Inverse folding.
């Protein structure tokens, strides 16, 4: 886990908002809503691959991997 509570909530809200785009926007705008799968998934599973690569963690009280 490398995504904190506030970060998770924001990601889930943004993901759901993006996934709702196809219902309100037609054409290519609707397809762009599929991008919402990524923030929704990272929010639900509390794991962000980009954070892992960069060594970032927004979780409180958990040391970053490799930190001494």
């Amino acid at each position: 886990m490398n995504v904190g509570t506030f970060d998770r909530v924001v990601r889930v809200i943004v993901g759901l908002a993006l996934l709702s785009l196809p219902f309100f926007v037609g054409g290519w705008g609707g397809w762009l809503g599929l991008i919402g799968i990524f923030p929704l998934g990272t929010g639900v599973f509390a794991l962000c691959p980009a954070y892992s690569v960069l060594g970032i963690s927004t979780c409180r009280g958990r040391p970053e991997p490799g930190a001494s």
Q: What stands out?
A: The chain has one domain: 5-54. The two ends are 18 Å apart (CA to CA). The longest helix spans residues 5-19.
